[in-house]
Amino acid sequence: MLPDKKIKTILQEHKLAPKKKFGQNFLTDKNIAAKIVNLADIRQEDTIIELGVGFGALTGYLAPSCRKVIGLEIDSGIIRYHEEEGSLPQNVTLMHQDILAADFTKLAEESGGRIKIIANLPYSISNPLLFKLTNYRDKIEWAVLMLQKEVAQRLTAKPGTKDYGILTVRMAACASVHKLLDLGPQYFHPRPKVDSQVVKIRFFPRPDRIAALPDYDRVFFKKIVDAAFQQRRKTLINALSASNMVGKEKKCIEASLEKLGLDNKIRGERLCVEEFIALTNILQQFQNT
């Protein structure tokens, strides 16, 4: 449970301090912690992977709600605090682990199936962690994440908007994203300079939209999406041909867009995930001829 003492007192007594390099903003409100766990819809038989345990604000509510919590924490000082205080419930296994280096395949094996993740993420690692989730989508059932609101909004952005980008398309190709809760800076110590949002990302069972997508080469798809947005002000034809990543002459790209009924002046930021996948399959055909 979130310690009764104020976070500041705990930090002082244990000679700890929030570390900027870890992007630490500790959740301090018990009611919010309980609400997040409740909204996650956890079952008693679940094993939950908590990314970034901190001082246990979420952990204390997770533990009674599930069979087991595997908590990953990078800060050795916080690991020492929990060991000295015995502050975590018995069904919590605490691991000294960098989240971005964690082996999700191994965690899935330890969980006995697809993993379920909950985290108050350091904002500095949100993007690489989200991309990692898409890479391990076959190992994950869902993830409930506290994100910087701006990052969370990118996950559900619409084509043609400024927030729409590589992350949006890659996530849309493998998961559904739903907002659970908006939070202001007052619920954290130290207070962040931005608002936060809690989202649930569901990879399995596959959402209807994902299940309806045709088969496609995932590696080639990533190359096309990355190239389309790395020079997003260029037309899609010019962005793809300039990248040399897809290995296609302009005429092949032009023919592909024509086959899809898309204007040859269109930019990548205007394509929805279904169109990117259709483009992937058509360009793949050209590659194989």
Structure characterization notes:
The chain is of the alpha/beta class and 289 residues long. It folds into 2 domains: 7-209, Vaccinia Virus protein VP39 (Rossmann fold), CATH 3.40.50.150; 218-287, rRNA adenine dimethylase, C-terminal domain (Helicase, Ruva Protein, domain 3). The protein has 13 helices and 9 strands. It has helices spanning 7-13, 30-40, 59-62, 76-85, 104-111, 126-135, 149-155, 166-172, 208-211, 218-230, 236-243, 250-260, 273-287, and strands spanning 26-27, 47-51, 68-73, 92-96, 115-120, 140-148, 176-183, 188-189, 196-202. It has a 7-stranded mixed beta sheet with strand order 4-3-2-5-6-9-7. It has a two-stranded antiparallel ribbon with strand order 1-8. Helix 6 links the parallel strand 5 (115-120) and strand 6 (140-148). The longest helix has 15 residues, at 273-287. The protein is elongated, with a radius of gyration of 21 Å. The mean pLDDT is 93.
Write the layout of secondary structure elements.
Layout: H1 7-13, E1 26-27, H2 30-40, E2 47-51, H3 59-62, E3 68-73, H4 76-85, E4 92-96, H5 104-111, E5 115-120, H6 126-135, E6 140-148, H7 149-155, H8 166-172, E7 176-183, E8 188-189, E9 196-202, H9 208-211, H10 218-230, H11 236-243, H12 250-260, H13 273-287
Parallel strand pairs: 2-3, 2-5, 3-4, 5-6
Antiparallel strand pairs: 1-8, 6-9, 7-9
Helix pairs in contact: 10-11, 10-13, 12-13
